[in-house]
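Exercise: predict the structure of this protein bound to 6-O-alpha-D-glucopyranosyl-D-fructose.
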Amino acid sequence: MDTLNLAACQAAAADWWKTAVIYQIYPRSFQDSDGDGVGDLAGIESRLDYLCDLGIDAIWLSPVFPSPMADFGYDVSDYCGIDPVFGTLEDFDRLVASCHDRGLKLLLDFVPSHSSDRHPWFLESRSSRGNPRRDWYIWRDAKPDGSPPNNWIGEFGGPSWTWDEATGQYYHNTFLPEQPALNWQNPELRAAMLEVIRFWYRRGVDGLRVDAITHVAPDVDKGDNPPNPDWAPHMGPTHSHLQANSKNQPEGYRIVRLMRQVSDEFPDRVLIGETSGSLGEVMSYYGDALDLFHLPFNFMLLRARWDAAEIAGLVETYEAALPEGGWPNWVLGNHDIGRIASRAGPAQARVAAALLLTLRGTPTLYQGDELGLENAVIPPAAVQDPWEKRVPGLGLGRDPARTPMAWQPGEGAGFSSADPWLPLCLPAEGDAARQSAAPGSILAFIRALLQLRREEPCLQIGSYRTRQAGDGLYVFDRSMPEGAVTVCLNFTSRPQATGLGGEVLLSSDPARPRGLSSGLVLAPDEAVILRQ
Ligand code: ISL
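Solution:
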């Protein structure tokens, strides 16, 4: 499948976010600078050189806004501020400047579907039925029997309606009761939220990752969701019903178009949407006229069985589904899902990184995955995630992928001088300092991959074509009119003959000689990039 012609290659090179590699920072767990056990903005600033050495182009920060932290920042109580645990607006301005000095872009999270129940807007809204901000949130009467207006279930379990005794109505919450859903149908709320985008762009932010977009502007009067015929208890309560009426409603798409129009008032900004469902749903968020998200997140690799043929199949399916002119993107890990080194197995972590960083499209690399961090075992007393607390024991909790970075030897692994908010989990190959000094480490391999990606236009903007996929071997080409590179991935723990020859540009095995090779046989769990 050849998906890109020369003109498209040139067009791709014009937008920075098409050739960039994005690195997701989960600020609570990146670097603590003030000894409270929680990471902060000054800590991030102090680690920018590490990120430059790594070779990424942009950082995206999970929320750093004022928040009671019921959902660790995804419950925002002031959209235009910085939570004291992370620092101040001055710290933020300094971070933007320090990023830009180094040629790094900075993206923020934007959480439009819900605020915190401590947001002054909500405090006003719930103060009386007649309050001018009542309609900024979604309020409905109980059914005659006192039950909620419909059967929708919250993403973290429980009804997605919360009764307000004082005013005698239910408010809608898609996630926790502490996260009331914003009513985007209200023109004043809409204007206020769109102004938030301008606020951060005026401060120099280069783009936004828009949270939980599928839940924005639900049509709560559309009726009950139908039961899910394929549901099993281990899937958790949320999926007991299909979210046919509660997600991806037409008004939501209109809102995204407005967000994009505001974003386009500023040059060179990128809008990324957290779409989470089917391929069709993801594609729908490009917009027929490519007027919605530049990059609707592609989470296919997050859910894939770690199998060469299966993954090659989904890459082809994704490539084929892209709208004309739509730019692809790939995500291998984030703060909501188990670590890739645990999902694929630690031995496959290099293969997984090679896949993420050589597929066509903008990759997002999650902090700690460059160290091969695995899921942490969180003792029950240390659990923080509200999802795990509300629906325990099903493995839904997200703490295992949110543990602090391990930077260097010594107490707190250089993350904090205090007890960290989540237990530290050391990567099997050692902390960042140790891996930096070890040529065979996963960190060294990912640095080399990112350097090769910078030097090799094929890897940035070349077309994609599967060569072979099956029996644990996945080989694909990235081509430009001037030449091609071939990526060979061994998904197994046994050697694999590729039948290919060429110049070895990079291998996950530092012992493999560079230069010409014929009849390439991959070692177990090896990734090799060849110039044909
Ligand atoms: O809606 C979903 C499935 O039907 C979820 O996958 C949903 O998209 C996802 O949980 C949204 O996650 C984001 O918003 C949450 C927050 O807890 C997560 O950390 C964030 O990534 C609420 O803001």
